[in-house]
Write the C-alpha cells for this entry.
Amino acid sequence: MKFRLPGLALAAILITAPAAQAVEFTQYQHGKSSLAFVYKQMNVPVDGQFKSFRARLAFDPSKPTAARAEFEIDLASVDAGSKDANDEVAGKAWFDTKAFPVARFVATSVKPLGNNRYEVAGKMSIKGKTQDLSTPVTVTQQGSNATFDGSLVLKRADYGIGDGIWADFGTVANEIQIKFRLVASAAAAK
C-alpha cells in the first residue's frame, strides 16, 4: 500500500517548516586576526605589524549593505622590527602615541562586488587627521567563522606621519601598504 500526501498538504508542511536561520558575524577573534604593513625605506621593503587592535563587526552575508564595522589600533603596539625602530615610530615625528594612542577606522558603507568581495568605505583617523578611504574586502565563510581579508595603501603624509627629517619620501616612501585579516564567529540573527 502506497501512502500519498495530497499536494496541498505537502505544500503546507513545507511552508510551516522552520526557515534556515540567518547568521551575523559579530564575535571578533583577536587571536586569529592580524594587521601588518609594508613600507619602503631607501627603496627597501620593510615589514611590520600591530600586535594590539580591536574590531566591532556586524556582518550578515544576506544583508551586506547593513554591515557595520569599527576598527581601533593601539599605535604603541607597533612592531617595526627592532626596539629602536619601535621607539622611533611611537615618537612625536611618527605616531606621537602619547598624544594620539589610537588610530580608528569606522565604515560608512559596504557595497557588494560579487564573488564574496565587497567594497568597504569609511573614515580613517590617525594623529588627529581623518581621511575617507575605501578598500576591497574578501569574505570567506568556514562553518561558523568568517574571515575578512583586505589590503590598502595609505599615504603617510595625509596623516602627518613622519615629520621633520622623516618627511623626505626618498628616505621613507609616502605609500604604506596595510594588510589585514579579521576573523569573526557567527551569532544567530534575531
Observations:
- The CA atoms of residues 1 and 29 lie 56 Å apart.
- The first strand starts at residue 23 and ends at 28.
- The longest helix spans residues 7-16.
- The chain has one domain: 23-184.
